[in-house]
Amino acid sequence: MSFRLATRLSSPCPSLVRSLVNRAAQRPVPSPRGNITNPEDFLKAIGRSAETKLAVESWEQLWHTDGRQLKKAGLPVRDRRYILWSMEKYRQGQDPAEFAHPPKPEKKIRGRGPAVQNGKRLRSRRHR
């Protein structure tokens, strides 16, 4: 087998293997700081009642958690993304009081908006 053919056949294999690695386990675990000493304190500090949605026993287990494990725990996508985003912000050295925010409120009106605005009925210009 020629060298060129061997490199073509072996090139897709590393890309498949790399996708199966838990990258959260490879990241450094930040040390607890301030009034955050355990996982429950961190989840309470980020808000959105995350401490009731995720049960983690140890500090290291929290920081080795990835999106797949959160999905297996039954968290919806918004909560998973918020928890992982908050973990990354804390890992970068920011305080949860600075970056924690409430969830986006649900829409009250479906569609593109109300048919009546400011006392006038809205109509499309193309129907005239």
Low-confidence region ranges = none
Spatial order of the strands forming the largest sheet: 1-2
Provide the β-strand percentage band.
Answer: under 5%
> What radius of gyration results from the CA coordinates?
23 Å
Count of helical segments? 9
Sheet bearing the most strands, described?
2 strands, antiparallel
**Quick check: average pLDDT?**
83
Shape: extended
Judged by helices, strands and strand pairing, the structural class is: mainly alpha
Strand-and-helix sequence, N→C?
HHHHHHHHHEE
**C-alpha end-to-end distance:** 72 Å
Instruction: Give the strand tally.
Output: 2
Portion in helices: 40-55%
Give a description of the structure:
Helix content is 48%, strand content 3%. With 128 residues, the protein is mainly alpha-helical. A two-stranded antiparallel ribbon has the order 1-2. The relative contact order is 0.11. The model has no long low-confidence stretch (mean pLDDT 83).
